[in-house]
Amino acid sequence: MQKPAIPKGTRDFTPSEMLRREYIFNTIKTVFKKYGYAPIETPAMENLSTLLGKYGEEGDKLLFKILNSGDFLQKADNTMVANNDSTRFALQISEKGLRYDLTVPFARFVVQHRNEISFPFKRYQIQPVWRADRPQKGRYREFFQCDADVVGSDALINELELIQIIEEVFGLLKMEVTLKLNNRKILAGIAEMIGLPDRLTDITVAIDKIEKIGLEKVVEELLQKELPPDSVQKLIPFLNMQGDNTRKLQTLKNLLKESAIGSKGLEEIETVLFLSREVGVQLTIVFDLTLARGLNYYTGAIMEVKANDVAIGSICGGGRYDNLTGIFGMPDVSGVGISFGADRIYDVLNQLNLYPDHVETATRLLILCFGEKEQLHGLKLLQALRKAGVQAEIHPDLAKLKKQMTYANNRGIPFVLLVGEDEITSNTYTLKNMQSGDQSQLTLPGIIEKLNQNEDAI
Amino acid sequence: MQKPAIPKGTRDFTPSEMLRREYIFNTIKTVFKKYGYAPIETPAMENLSTLLGKYGEEGDKLLFKILNSGDFLQKADNTMVANNDSTRFALQISEKGLRYDLTVPFARFVVQHRNEISFPFKRYQIQPVWRADRPQKGRYREFFQCDADVVGSDALINELELIQIIEEVFGLLKMEVTLKLNNRKILAGIAEMIGLPDRLTDITVAIDKIEKIGLEKVVEELLQKELPPDSVQKLIPFLNMQGDNTRKLQTLKNLLKESAIGSKGLEEIETVLFLSREVGVQLTIVFDLTLARGLNYYTGAIMEVKANDVAIGSICGGGRYDNLTGIFGMPDVSGVGISFGADRIYDVLNQLNLYPDHVETATRLLILCFGEKEQLHGLKLLQALRKAGVQAEIHPDLAKLKKQMTYANNRGIPFVLLVGEDEITSNTYTLKNMQSGDQSQLTLPGIIEKLNQNEDAI
Q: Which domain holds residue A156?
């Protein structure tokens, strides 16, 4: 007999895990909706032509490919098999793959449905994605992304609203966080000022590493990458900047005053900070020049959220992109978006135990019966309780009372109601608080009142 | 440039579709939770060893298989390629498949997590499943199942609760439905009484067809399948039964009185009908002997729901099974469950236009601004409105007023608020009802009051 198991890197979610995860997803959803973002969903499978080439060579390797149905060998060029050329043969026998992120399917969606959509189009999307990565702690082959994007508007108000969303989501989740903010145009301005506009990627990758390996090593790496020493020299003042947001921005204003794009980036970030102050954003926002993020498609704002009290990677990130839909033939659509890392947020909430008390128990009361006659009476009580909005259950089996009690305990159900022959005659039942052990004799209206009172207590 | 498209048989869901679907899913979820069913989720990918052989030969063919990552040809026996043996070669190069339904993954889950679960275990699960079926109207390659099952209890109270769930879900959705009820043990009793206990499958398949092809053809088919003519003759009184539930059950009591299993089935169905009456179930329940359903694993109750006002297949179905987890090495776990067909329910609600008014528009108000200064003021108003619980948005771009109006119209946003220079000075704004065209001059508290009043009106 096979021992049941699931593929490595994937997870089952038990009821208590699900209820905690739903609390996170529902919080995020509620805020997205409040800010006018509307839900969409796309299929788990996309055509490989949609996915390939969008995530770099490494990404292509990490795509899960679906084997064509039926007699797939018939249509394939089998000579590749002899050469053991798995990569090319894969494309002979599979046309579809599982989605790798929500961004590329969203771009495909916008282009495909351009005539049904009103722009600016604000959408959110909460769905799993799949990557054939090596599984390790905190990295899964199936995980959830929660994205909100607005496309078809380049107004900085959109950046502001995403910041407000971030503030509100983490406020509701009671998490202390810091928002790091940067602008790709500033990075481009720096590349321009040091005379290396084409080496933006090298520079940003290096800047991204400064916190991890320090200035000296970063300089070393840049020289190894054959950046001219005088350019690297010119870069150092940018890397060495100190002080609060205002001071840093002031320093940059001087350093970048001759770069049009750099000055534009500074103006954008200052506007976003100004608007945030005006509408009363309380979130800690740190302008962080080292924030570059791996993704190459950001063209304006770049943002990232870190938890203050737990050492874990970024729990939310995003930015502005100017040509996301270009790859599908629809140029000049500017967009900005953020993505919440639900799995990491889940880890942080677990670690700090930040869930509200109720989140894991839905059922408030279990009716325990001594026999068949009592059960029939219990079913009618149950019906009345449910009608009154009390989430209640009955133990379906005529099991021993102790077994029924254990069941209530294991399920974390806070109250049990005992129904015996005397109780039926008197219409008065014993309500037991499973935590305190307190018992009270109550009629049906009394039970309803007690449980509705206690809604927040236990 | 490639024209963006999705794989055939799959669907994108736009915001208006999503909001309508969420209304259905949320209704079902709320009722599941009310009855004490707790959510679980399982991975999209299962090991093929979990899936293969569980859905018959045809089902195996319809599984979407995932190509192994990396150099999959290295480990494969490539001789099969020469023979064009796609079926066997597939198993050389793929180990995982997409889930085909929620039932087999649930059985795997129960066995794998048996020590973390309290039995009876009541779970619900709402997730997509994938089948490489030929796509056609109403049949998709990716579709959602909404299952509720309880395992580890053979009490008929569980059947009763599923009936109550069905009544409540369709009541909330305002759909008129009929529940068909049968019991596999009655069918087994019939097979026994006509002397063919081994031909149960042939008989139930035939019975299942009676509505479609009529008695004569069914008899013909049975004879073709080489059932002895005298057995077929004995079957006819069962097929010819008339009358209401009570009369049919009475007829069967006589016909089946010498079959222990048949009598047990009758007793079960009578108990379920008795309990339903006792707790006040109002749903139309029809005992229907022709209800057999394709699935072979039901051992007790069989149920199916049909919409009264739309010609469409079953919109919900289920039954009791006694050995679901046996295939994974955990015998003797009795369970009973139902599955709502969300896609068909969606079709019915669309056809009858049964959605509540609000379901498609979340945003109630769009703030329109004449210029930059007005926009900044508008942002602060927006903040205050959102704090007061009014779902509002601002148009992010300083577009022409007409363009902003069109946007509100296209999005179905019921109110717009105009913010110009005068409005800022007087703190009095023009609120326009987009449907009636009515305008009123209101201060912020007035706007909040008006919109909260109108919550149910538009």
A: 15-63+100-352
